[in-house]
Amino acid sequence: MRSSDETIRLDHHPAVDDTRRLPRHRSQGGRPHRQGPAPRRQPARPVQHRPVAGQPPVQRRPAGPPPAQPTPPKKNRQAPPGCGCLVTLLVICLALAAAFAAFWFFSARQVPAPIDSLPASEQKAEAIQRAGKNTSFLLVGDDERTEGEQARSDTMLYMVMRPVDKKISLVSLPRDSLVTIPGHGEDKLNAAFAYGGIDLLLQTVTDLIGPKADHTVLVNFTGFEKMVNAVGGVTIDVPQKMYKPEEGIDLEAGRQKLNGHDALAFVRWRDDGLGDIGRMDRQKEFMAAFAKECRLMWPWQAVRLAWALHQAVDTDLSVLDSLKLVVDMAGMGPDAVQVDHFELNPQYINNVSYVLLDPADVRRTIERVYYGIEISSI
After folding, report:
1. How many helices (H) and strands (E) in the chain?
2. CA 22, CA 300: separation in Å to the nearest integer?
3. Quick one: CA dihedral 226, 232, 237, 238, positive or negative?
4. Contact present, 223 and 180 (Cβ < 8 Å)
5. What span, in angstroms and rounded, lies between the C-alpha atoms of 15 and 6?
6. Rounded CA separation 277/106 (Å)
């Protein structure tokens, strides 16, 4: 038989927590006092759905608002192909044009005083010193219309570029001048080109005027027209109606802008009663008008003129020498072109019209063209 203590133990239910029977201790504020921190409540785990064999797993959308749909990017307007290259080329051309204009303006301020404004005792020495940088040319325009045709020199000019003075001086050589052609005797000057080309003509001209030209430039009718069209034409006051249909000449009187074809007709017209003398006067007028157009042309016109010269001109001048001349002549003023002339004495010999030149007048004229003054008279 067991004792009472043992009976009490048997009556105690093991599932009952004894702590419920213990008295609760209260804090000074009267609220129940817990013996320790309450256990933290764990968040409920999401229910994991096991995929059924043979079916793809179900994608569950996360809780919260649906994500914003991305805005499709705007399509940029595509530039035309090559636009960037054209813009770059245009900027480069404008920069070069501005630089050349600035250089031209600066060079124009560096022009020394004219020789004739210096004291007479200094003019000759100064003229000879400046002439050391001059470049002379024999410009020849032949009348060849078709390739292989026997041509004569229709126009002949002796031209000097004087970079120190920023001047271009020239004189027209009369085609009917009575000269002695080496190996062919006396004849008209333009016959020398038909006999031996530009070389024989250069030798004949040198015997006539004295100094030998540094370079030769040969231009035919087609090249002349291309050069005039490249600068946009020339403005000239045509003094009278010029009409000769067999040579393609048909011009009305009055001030007008002539294209290449009409400008060629203007300089070739000879039926005004003055013959070669009147024609040389028109050539001088044309040269002054052409030089003015060259000074006022835009950069792209300069490119067109350079290309026309390259195609239509036969010269012994190199490309580098041409560029050097362009740079040296930068800063030319409106009166840069000076056209001189010989004293002409037209006569008929054996029923043939010739022009006789005075050797003394030729020497003085060539000195004015080359030096700017007559140095032999100082």
Report:
1. 10, 14
2. 112
3. positive
4. no
5. 18
6. 40
**Given CA atoms 100, 170, 312, 261 in this order, what sign does their dihedral have?**
positive
Is-contact 179 189, C-beta < 8 A?
A: yes
Greatest pairwise CA separation for the chain in angstroms:
186
What is the CATH classification number for the domain harbouring 281?
3.40.630.190
171 within domain boundaries? yes
Q: Where in the sequence is the domain holding 293, given as residue range(s)?
A: 94-377
For the chain, give the number of residues: 378
pTM over 0.85: no
Phi, psi for residue 361 in degrees, rounded to 5 = -70, -35
Task: Grade residue 171 by pLDDT with cuts at 50, 70 and 90.
Answer: very high
The structure tokens 């133990």 sit at 9
Stretch 264-284: mean pLDDT: 82
Distance CA 367, CA 378 (A): 12
Asked if the structure places residue 298 within a domain, the reply is yes
Determine the Cα–Cα distance for residues 280 and 155; give it in Å rounded to an integer.
9
- How many folded domains does the chain comprise? 1
The β-bridge partners of 150 are none
Would 216 be classed as within a structural domain?
yes
- Closest residue by Cα to residue 290 from 371, 170, 202: 170
In the chain, what is the straight-line distance between the N-terminal and C-terminal CA atoms, in Å?
171
Radius of gyration of the chain (CA): 50
Q: If we measure between CA atoms, which residue out of 216, 172, 190 comes closest to residue 314?
A: 216
pLDDT confidence tier of residue 230, bands split at 50, 70 and 90 = confident
Does 80 reside within a domain? Answer: no
